[in-house]
From TrEMBL:
<dbReference type="GO" id="GO:0007019">
    <property type="term" value="P:microtubule depolymerization"/>
</dbReference>
<feature type="region of interest" description="Disordered">
    <location>
        <begin position="496"/>
        <end position="585"/>
    </location>
</feature>
<dbReference type="InterPro" id="IPR027640">
    <property type="entry name" value="Kinesin-like_fam"/>
</dbReference>
<dbReference type="InterPro" id="IPR027417">
    <property type="entry name" value="P-loop_NTPase"/>
</dbReference>
<keyword id="KW-0547">Nucleotide-binding</keyword>
<feature type="compositionally biased region" description="Basic and acidic residues">
    <location>
        <begin position="107"/>
        <end position="126"/>
    </location>
</feature>
<feature type="compositionally biased region" description="Low complexity">
    <location>
        <begin position="696"/>
        <end position="721"/>
    </location>
</feature>
<feature type="region of interest" description="Disordered">
    <location>
        <begin position="661"/>
        <end position="721"/>
    </location>
</feature>
<dbReference type="InterPro" id="IPR036961">
    <property type="entry name" value="Kinesin_motor_dom_sf"/>
</dbReference>
<dbReference type="GO" id="GO:0003777">
    <property type="term" value="F:microtubule motor activity"/>
</dbReference>
<feature type="binding site">
    <location>
        <begin position="261"/>
        <end position="268"/>
    </location>
    <ligand>
        <name>ATP</name>
    </ligand>
</feature>
<dbReference type="GO" id="GO:0008017">
    <property type="term" value="F:microtubule binding"/>
</dbReference>
<feature type="region of interest" description="Disordered">
    <location>
        <begin position="92"/>
        <end position="127"/>
    </location>
</feature>
<keyword id="KW-0067">ATP-binding</keyword>
<comment type="similarity">
    <text>Belongs to the TRAFAC class myosin-kinesin ATPase superfamily. Kinesin family. KIN-13 subfamily.</text>
</comment>
<keyword id="KW-0505">Motor protein</keyword>
<feature type="domain" description="Kinesin motor">
    <location>
        <begin position="171"/>
        <end position="495"/>
    </location>
</feature>
């Protein structure tokens, strides 16, 4: 309301109104058009006044933008509302009962906020907005929705946009074309969820449901070099996408134009056209080529050759030669040739269309179950300019890429379909990487990752120009595919023009989790050059390996003397070494050695002591476990009416534990007895020896003279004692 009053307020009553009208300001709302050059004309000179006016103008600009954005949304909603079926089926059926309006459309601002920024509006603020919307226009279509959204990239018109190259001077341009809803989609009641804005922005309104079952619209904004709405003709698309490439080719360069998108999104319509009266990019390009050649190359004529082939599941088939199998081979100079490819000379647009229609017929033999018109292959049309001596004087590729949807979307996800899908996905990923590496002027182009990029290798090196047209369907059922297409295109263009800033700006951007996910999906190559991507994340320790290193995690390795919990073996230690070196400290660690084995080898007293210590620890452990078992068992039996099976199982385990404890005790007493036996044996052996010595001494005395015998006897007595 305040805004309305403010907007309608005339300035004519102001004493200095003539100054305002002289700079085109008739109403307060016009103040937003003021620039700083107008300030002196208005008599504003002091810095304080200038600052105040500047702030006012900025505030008005923000209000204007918000109003425009709201109008866009309301227009969009009005369009949706006009689709009666959708309104009833989609909007109402998804809402079980009418709820009061609680949220409004997103608060827009075209101020660049960084890549993929999420904007959320508080519920209170949104409620206020929707209330004013309702009073103003009374077109509530989605009554219950919150608003939030994503921005993908910066508007190219923004002063902060990374790439401010002039259109046409760019080596890579990425455009989006939205097709209208088809009759079938309209009949099915599909809603148009895509808004093409201002020539370079496209918004996808994704219908979502919150955990509290609240309906809301999530808006995704994407910025590209060009955005074509449903009203755009092939001619217009051609002028702003392929035409600069054709000019580049006519100047002897190489150019490639890709049509990318979901099956049925309009790739073939864009490339081939819908009828002879509405030609596509192929025909329009050739028309311009002939027009150019007829005026400029009259003395040394250039010839136009076309070849047309497809790549299906990594194999090449010639569409102008009954789908003959072709092979791409690299020669000694690392130039890729397609062996056996047939090229046909054309001398007019009609002859080109004739050739292409022949090839298209061949191509449609490889249909899939997604859509009767779809194809799961990439179609590549090559137009070459050759001199009379067959030297190439320019080359252009038109690539109608296979549908970007996943193989799982096919009606029959059999093995063949899955392989097709995997192949397509791989080639599209490789294509993205190659285009990015072309733009970043990297020394390495990963063109060998797929047959498509291998064949197009020439297009990714040198002075090539590339244009990608991402075709999108507007229907709400295709929202996910549309978003995938736009995200792919966004990834292709996102680092464009930052060849010199590799790892700079991007590296400073706060990465979002989604971006990271998609980064992780990216293969090496181009990605690895950026600062953020070049660093591989710290490797997570593998649990399995840890176990292997740290030994078994059985209770016997955790509990030590005194009942304290011990860690497993420290890193870099080996079993046995630590145990013998540090004695009783590592009691818990030593338990991996079988107890009986240690007792069996107990020859030294020290080891025997250790063994006894271990046995004591083990016994303590078993006792503790037995106690625990019995406590658990008692609890189980007290708290729950256990089943007979459960009781028996508990009893069995408890008995097993007791047996273990008993056996440990037995082992301990057995060890003691063994030790005593050993000692007794030693004592016995000593006594025998003494007895033998005495006998020997007595016998010797009988044969020796008395003097010698007395001396020997005294020394022997000493030794025996
Ligand atoms: N810009 C457009 N204006 C009007 N109709 C269009 C437009 N784009 C596409 N269509 C129509 O949409 C339908 C599907 O288009 P198209 O066959 O070109 O899709 P596609 O992406 O090439 O699919 P596939 O991958 O199966 O070849 C066709 O009937 C076509 O006429």
């Amino acid at each position: 309301m305040t805004l309305c009053l403010y907007e309608s307020h005339p300035l004519t009553s102001h004493p200095n109104s003539h100054l305002f009208t002289s700079v085109g300001v008739h109403r307060a709302a016009h103040l937003s058009g003021l620039t700083m050059e107008d300030y002196p004309i208005l008599g504003i000179r002091s810095m304080e006044d200038r600052t105040r006016l500047f702030n006012l103008v900025q505030m008005l600009k923000t209000i204007d933008l918000e109003t425009n954005a709201k109008q866009d949304i309301m227009e969009e909603l009005s369009i949706n509302n006009s689709h009666a079926r959708f309104s009833t089926r989609f909007a109402l059926s998804r809402r079980p009962k009418p709820r009061p309006a609680t949220a409004a459309s997103r608060k827009f601002s075209d101020q660049p906020v960084g890549r993929k920024d999420t904007k959320e509006v508080s519920r209170k603020e949104m409620s206020t907005n929707i209330a004013s919307e309702h009073t103003a226009k009374a077109t509530p279509v989605y009554e219950s929705k919150t608003a939030a959204g994503y921005n993908y990239g910066l508007p190219l018109s923004s002063p902060l946009a990374p790439n401010k190259k002039q259109p046409g001077a760019q080596r890579i341009s990425v455009c989006v074309r939205k097709r209208p809803l088809t009759c079938t989609e309209r009949r099915a009641g599909e809603a148009d969820v895509v808004t093409a804005l201002s020539g370079e922005c496209v918004i996808v309104h994704e219908s979502k449901e919150a955990v509290d079952l609240t309906e809301y619209i999530l808006q995704h904004r994407f910025y590209f070099d060009q955005v074509f709405g449903e009203e755009s003709s092939n001619e217009e698309v051609y002028r702003r996408t392929a035409y600069p490439l054709v000019q580049h080719m006519l100047n002897g360069g190489k150019a490639t134009c890709f049509a990318y998108g979901q099956t049925g999104a309009g790739k073939t319509h864009t490339m081939l056209g819908s009828s002879p009266g509405r030609p596509g990019l192929y025909a329009l390009a050739v028309r311009d080529i002939f027009a150019h050649l007829s005026t400029t190359h009259t003395r040394s004529p250039l010839l136009v050759y076309v070849s047309f082939f497809e790549i299906y599941c990594g194999q090449l088939y010639d569409l102008l030669d009954h789908r003959k199998r072709l092979f791409a081979r690299e020669d000694g100079q690392k130039v890729v040739h397609i062996a056996g490819l047939r090229d046909v000379r054309v001398d007019s647009v009609s002859s080109l269309l004739e050739v292409i229609s022949q090839g298209t017929e061949e191509r449609t033999q490889g249909m899939s179950g997604v859509n009767p018109l779809s194809s799961r292959s990439h179609a590549l049309l090559q137009i070459q300019l050759r001199r009379l001596n067959q030297q190439i004087a320019g080359r252009m590729w038109f690539v109608d890429l296979a549908g970007s949807e996943r193989a799982s979307d096919t009606k029959e996800p059999d093995r063949q379909s899955r392989m097709e899908g995997a192949e397509i996905n791989q080639s599209l990923l490789a294509l993205k990487e190659c285009i990015r590496s072309l733009d970043q002027e990297q020394s390495h182009t990963p063109f060998r990752q797929s047959k498509l990029t291998q064949v197009l290798k020439d297009s990714f090196v040198g002075d090539s120009m590339t244009c990608m047209i991402a075709n999108i369907s507007p229907g709400h059922l295709a929202t996910e595919h549309t978003l995938n297409t736009l995200r792919y295109a966004d990834r292709v263009k996102e680092l464009r023009g930052q060849g010199g800033l590799r790892g700079g700006r991007r590296g400073k951007t706060i990465p979002s989790p989604k971006r990271n996910l998609s980064n992780s999906n990216s293969s090496s190559g181009a990605n690895s050059s950026t600062a953020t991507r070049g660093k591989s994340p710290p490797k997570k320790p593998k649990l399995g390996r840890q176990r292997e290193v740290f030994g078994p995690s059985t209770p016997t390795s955790r509990v030590a003397t005194g009942g304290s919990i011990l860690c497993s073996t420290p890193k870099n230690s080996r079993w046995g070494e630590e145990t013998s070196a540090k004695g009783g400290k590592e009691i818990g660690l030593e338990q991996i050695t079988p107890i009986r084995g240690m007792l069996g080898t107990a020859e030294k007293g020290e080891k025997r002591e250790k063994a006894c210590g271990r046995v004591a620890a083990d016994e303590q452990l078993h006792l503790w476990e037995a106690q625990r078992e019995s406590v658990f068992y008692r609890r189980e039996t007290a708290n729950q009416p256990s089943t007979l099976h459960g009781v028996r199982e508990g009893e069995r385990r408890s008995i097993e534990r007791r047996i273990q404890v008993e056996s440990s005790r037995d082992t301990y007493s057995e060890a003691e007895r063994q030790r005593e036996r050993d000692l007794q044996k030693v004592d016995g052996r000593d006594k025998d020896r003494e007895r033998h010595l005495r006998q020997y001494h007595q016998q010797l005395q009988q044969f020796m003279p008395s003097s010698a015998s007395s001396a020997f006897s005294s020394s022997n007595q000493a030794s025996l004692s």
